[in-house]
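User:
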Amino acid sequence: MGLRTTDELIADTRLMLDNRTDLTAAQMLNWVNQAYNHISQPEVRWHRELETVYDITLVAAQSSYAVDSVTVGFTILDIVDVTFYDATAIAETTTRRDVQPREINWWNRQTLSSRSGGPSHYTWWKDEIKFASLPATADASKIVRMEVYRDPAVLTAGTGTTSINRYFDRGIALGAKWMAELDLGYAEQAEASRQEYAAWINEKRNATNMQSRDTRQRTQIRHESYMDRS
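Assistant: Predicted structure:
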């Protein structure tokens, strides 16, 4: 996790903005959170600290399950892997099967029927995950585990720190400076700050590419929203 507290990140950002005292703490916190959220997006930088799991208990003949932030407790930004466990509790010896990703247009063309042995495919659509085939009665209460990449918890003023590596403490302050200058109307300064912020992130990315990057295969299925279908 990070070493700089939220209040220290706010102070760092204020200092980069020529120590402007007319900017409120609430404004500064907003920019820090915007930068923290941006740097945590999987397409910007993948952070192992934001990997987690979410388990779904199957219901007989039910294909769709809510995975919105209220149900799950956090926002899922990406799905890494989905596995069916042929049991009502997960253990090292539990028989398991891979569940493969499919796009929504594939799922829309399926005529679903019940089949034992767990789902073979899934589709992530809006705030739901949909399974094919329908869970049979024998599979009710068995578990599908989703390995996911989550969004970070919002920072609040005080002594709390970020969930990601301490290297990115400075990156968050640089990102907050960029976003503050955008909002304050300093376009030229904002562009220079954006480049400095990007360079900081890319320097770390280049380092991790030197035979130490996580190369495991990911599903490559991204969250499709209603607005994506134009």
